[in-house]
Write a structure and sequence with these properties.
alpha/beta; Rossmann fold; 4 strands; 22% strand
Length: 94
């Protein structure tokens, strides 16, 4: 079971959109039931990151996270989505 942290500025709005899109993407790629996601504020990443396999942040994330942090801006803009999806699948295989 992969644990994924989804972060945005407030931990509510854009992280909800990111959560929905990543859930849909992972489910359509055969990972249904193989992951859990939690949303948080970007300021909480460092404190929470040690308990997660990776994080997706829709805004600038702190550099001292204890897990890999993927740039989630493509979830909002659509630009660079292929690269993000590739990175997410890579993290799921680890």
């Amino acid at each position: 079971m992969k644990k994924i942290l989804i972060a945005c500025g407030s931990g509510v709005c854009t992280s909800t959109v990111a959560n929905q899109k990543i859930t849909e993407f992972l489910n359509s790629n055969g990972y249904e039931g193989q992951f859990k996601m939690e949303q948080c504020k970007v300021a909480e990443i460092v404190a929470k990151s040690e308990n997660y396999d990776f994080c997706i942040a829709t805004t600038t994330a702190p550099k001292d996270a204890k897990c890999p942090v993927l740039a989630g801006l493509p979830l909002l803009t659509g630009m660079g989505m292929d690269k993000l999806q590739e990175d997410v699948l890579e993290q799921m295989k680890k």
